[in-house]
Amino acid sequence: MTKISLADMRKSYQSAELLEENAQNHPMRQFEQWLHEALQAEVPEPNAMTLATVGSDMRPSTRVVLIKGYDDHGLVWYTNYDSRKGHELAGNPFASLQFHWVELERVVRIEGRVSKVSAEESDAYFHSRPLDSRIGAWASPQSQVITSRTQLVTQAASYMAKFGMKPPRPPHWGGYRLTPDRWEFWQGGVARLHDRLSYRLQDDTWTKERLAP
């Protein structure tokens, strides 16, 4: 196997700029613009975001989840409430999200408080999912140790036999909404002079600031 020198890996960033006068005054509008441009550019999985939480042992953990909605109240995703992230959010509701659109040389970071969405919102999204995904929500004891993949397949078959084509939403499954109080938009720049614009919420007003790269 050829040895790879990670220290020698380099990338030149030069696709765009992010200037204060061209950035939106509200971070959600800036996010919406960049998300639309990521969709237009057909970057792989533009809806994928890394979710960072901190447990009671003060150890951070990350995983990739998919954004399923957003508005001025925050960003929404769905998952198993009994998973590791669910337990960590129950103990510490503050979290961070990050989008990385490599082809556009862009990163978006969002910080804020997380709360569960309403049961009605969770029901509506759950019933819009494909049948195998709805059965999977019942079959997978997310983040728990299992004996083998066979256990998952067996449980999925069991729940399919039980519920048929109309499985209800599991009580342990639903949505979360992160309500932001801080955003950062990062645009790769020439000579490592990257553009970083930060938005901080103070007294219900967003303050836009440039950060050194």
List the helices and strands and how they pair.
Blueprint (H helix, E strand, L loop, with lengths): L26 H14 L7 E7 L5 E7 L2 E3 L2 E7 L3 H8 L2 E8 L4 E11 L2 H8 L4 H9 L9 H15 L9 E15 L7 E8 L2 E6 L3
Q: Please state the oligomeric state of the protein chains shown.
A: single chain
End-to-end gap: 36 Å
Q: For the CA atoms, what is the radius of gyration? A: 20 Å
| Assigned CATH architecture of the largest domain | Roll
Helix and strand succession? HEEEEHEEHHHEEE
Reported for the largest beta sheet, the result is: 9 strands, antiparallel
Q: What's the helical proportion of residues?
A: 25-40%
The poorly predicted ranges are none
Global shape:
globular
Percent strand equals 25-35%
**How many domain regions?**
2
**CATH secondary-structure class of the largest domain:** Mainly Beta
The tally of beta strands, per DSSP, is 9
Q: Provide a count of the helices.
A: 5
CATH superfamily of the largest domain: Electron Transport, Fmn-binding Protein, Chain A
**Could you tell me the mean pLDDT?**
95
Find the structural class using helix and strand composition.
alpha+beta
Question: What name does CATH use for the topology of the largest domain?
Answer: Pnp Oxidase, Chain A
